[in-house]
């Protein structure tokens, strides 16, 4: 079973019986894994978006349009705020040590350092077997985190410069931890599913370039 990005963004994160709008998802392009979910816990009059690690998100209930959060409401209130800047930087706003939901302690700054180390490891290794071009941007820098919604409307082409269409939606696996498919709308209006693993690179014109030819995705 898969979950579409458009659906997840219409659901509410459920914690302690309350629900909070899901406002954004962030994935790691090098591994195509979901890393963070942004929730708006501010209520009707004030927007207050916080970042929750994907590992803290539980089961999705499409019938109730909710996404369980494995954090208490007071822990959400102490989560890092997202001010629409690099989500990894938000961890610097947390105190040096935090008590977790089961009494254990962990350091947000250590978590941030771990993120940087993982990014460095991805530069040395390619565990998903992705082409090297898919791991770097046009300046040769390693990708870190990307807001998944940025894919919507992006032009999709094949490596022989064939036009596929534009990205209409994104599919994650269940539980939603990995980006599986990009749903591309063709000029005819038909929607074709393009495996994310086929991504070769994002070029200087911000177009997604996939392996193969247009005929491979008919």
What characteristic shape results from the CA principal axes? elongated
CATH architecture of the largest domain: Roll
Taking all Cα atoms into account, the compactness measure Rg is 18 Å
Name of the CATH class of the largest domain:
Mainly Beta
The beta-strand count equals: 16
Secondary structure: helix percent: 10-25%
Most strands sheet? 7 strands, mixed
Mean pLDDT: 80
> What's the domain count?
2
CATH fold-level label of the largest domain: SH3 type barrels
Number of helical elements: 3
Strand content: 35-45%
Low-confidence stretches: 93-110, 116-143
Structural class: mainly beta
CATH H-level superfamily of the largest domain: PRC-barrel domain
Order of helices and strands: EHEEEEEEHEEHEEEEEEE
N-C termini distance:
22 Å
Give a concise summary.
The chain is built from three helices and 16 strands. It is mostly beta strands.
Structure characterization notes:
The protein is mostly beta strands and 218 residues long. Helices cover 12% and strands 37% of the residues. The protein folds into two domains: 119 residues, PRC-barrel domain (SH3 type barrels, Roll); 69 residues, Roll (SH3 type barrels). The protein is built from three helices and 16 strands. The strands form three sheets. Strands 1, 11, 12, 13, 14, 15 and 16 form a seven-stranded mixed beta sheet that branches. Strands 2, 3, 4, 5, 6, 7 and 10 form a seven-stranded mixed beta sheet that branches. A hairpin with a 5-residue loop joins β15 and β16. About 21% of the residues have low confidence.
């Amino acid at each position: 079973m898969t979950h579409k990005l458009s659906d997840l963004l219409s659901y509410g994160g459920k914690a302690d019986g309350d629900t909070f709008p899901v406002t954004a998802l962030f994935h790691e392009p090098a591994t195509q894994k979901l890393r963070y979910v942004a929730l708006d816990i501010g209520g009707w009059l004030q927007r207050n978006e916080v970042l929750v690690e994907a590992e803290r998100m539980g089961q999705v209930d499409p019938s109730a349009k909710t996404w369980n959060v494995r954090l208490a409401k007071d822990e959400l209130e102490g989560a890092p705020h997202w001010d629409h800047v690099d989500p990894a930087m938000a961890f610097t706003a947390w105190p040096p040590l935090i008590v977790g939901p089961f009494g254990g302690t962990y350091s947000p700054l250590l978590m941030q350092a771990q993120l940087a180390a993982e990014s460095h490891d991805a530069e040395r290794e390619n565990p998903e077997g992705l082409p090297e071009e898919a791991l770097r941007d046009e300046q040769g820098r390693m990708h870190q985190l990307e807001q998944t919604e940025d894919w919507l409307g992006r032009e999709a082409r094949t490596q022989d410069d064939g036009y596929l269409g534009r990205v209409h939606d994104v599919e994650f696996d269940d539980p939603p931890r990995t980006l599986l498919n990009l749903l591309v709308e063709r000029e005819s209006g038909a929607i074709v599913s393009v495996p994310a693993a086929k991504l070769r690179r994002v070029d200087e014109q911000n177009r997604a370039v996939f392996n193969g030819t247009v005929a491979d995705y008919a």
